[in-house]
Request: fold
Amino acid sequence: RLTRTRLIGRGIAYGLEVNMNTNVVNVTKGVGVTSWGFLISLDECTLTHYKEYKLPEGLIYPYFMDATGNDVLLIELVTAENSVNIGAKPLDSSLILSNYIVLLFLEPATKNLQSCLGKSCDDLGVEKTFTVRKLLISKDDLNKINGTNANKGGAMYPALYQLETIDYPRALITAVEAKNYADLINSYLSPIAAILGNLLKQLEVVYKELPLLQRNFSNVDFGSINLEWEGKLIDYAEKYLNGTAFGFQYLYDAFEDIVKSYEELRCAAMHLNSSVLPNADAFPMHLMLGSVACPPSIHRQEFEYSPLFNDHNNWSKKVVSVFGRTITMLNGYLDPKESKSKNAVLATPSKEKWQSIGKKKFATQVQFTI
Reply:
């Protein structure tokens, strides 16, 4: 079991998707691994009846308790064939299934075997059997036990799925938008002002969500970066207008590259779904079968790889590298007002439309710690 959880992964490996209507719950076949390493394998089943579920006498499973130590209400789903002998009722509209999530619970039963007698000791010890129970739990109660068990479900870094695409407006150079020099400058600078705040907001979400970045880049102050660039845009606009600075088109191009770098970071960060020695008590003998969705549902036990798989180290290095490059591009833009200095050359990379920002030649060096 330790081999599964620590070297392979845990959660729903495949299948186990739930479809509900008023009087039928269907679960597709599939396999999952609990946080204690138990393998739960299920064939496709159609469940039409229900009854209240209680843990067997003598079985204690505190992971179905809320923060106050009280057992939450659980409902067992059974097939029509198995409903006869246990007094289960048919599913109907009195049970609003949309308010519930299906759980698979590996219910254990222990049988004490005989003592070692005579020459044979084969039956010494205990025998354990397991029954896969299909349970319903309300979403509110599931949130309670997940809070107690520190079970996040879904993706490891759910905020990453809320990241927004930055739509960088084009600089429109027409007789209407650029009828004079001031309007021409505005055509290049206004798109930067339009996306600046949201761009930094999205970068801050990535930074706060990933401990990997916080270990490698301490105290990144996105608020200060935002204020600094707001001041720079005003300062640059004045200098462009009075002729003491040139190259507003290069400033526009620089932010286009920064936006591309953010998108590359966003893509790379989505591959970080591995964990080292995860919380073993998150879902010891049960699995949540919430809806398959993007972003992943907090009520579904998405598969969580060990770092051995999924190219974890390489993706971690890439995320650190791309984040460091993005911050360097924000903080290290060459001030165009120094146009007469030895650093006056402003240039954009060649083949700009042909390849990703990561393949362009930006001389940045970042040290990282995984």
